[in-house]
Write a structure and sequence with these properties.
This protein is an alpha+beta fold and 148 residues long. The chain is built from six helices and four strands, in the order E-H-E-H-E-E-H-H-H-H.
Amino acid sequence: MTSYSHRDDPAVPAFDDEGARCVMDAHCALCARGARWIAKADKAGEFRIIPLQSDLGRALMIHYGMDPDDPTSWLYLEDGTPYTSLYALTRVARRLGGIWHVLRVLNTVPRAVQDPLYRAVARNRYRLFGRGDLCAMPDPDVQKRLLQ
């Protein structure tokens, strides 16, 4: 899919899409921890977080051929280009820089292993990590990054 293809989709509400955008499950404690990690590590302030349950989050998932009701779904848009699964995580780490480059070691794992591994953790994330409420988090660094 071409970069910024969502701009041509009338079903996707217009939003500030420049830079790094993460569509994350707002009810997942692991995702909430991920949002805190991004907020602390993103010194340039480039990242914005879009709750999966928002109209914008759902529309983006559908546009990029993903099921917004599937617990394994997460989407990272980097300058309008979509990424998913563990590869998306390594792209986030690359953009954050610094010590987070170490996560790029995940790219050495074959894609045929990455995706099933990611799906296994994602399907069990509520059981393993619990539930949270990303949108109600009191962390001001996270709150200022939310796009809904």
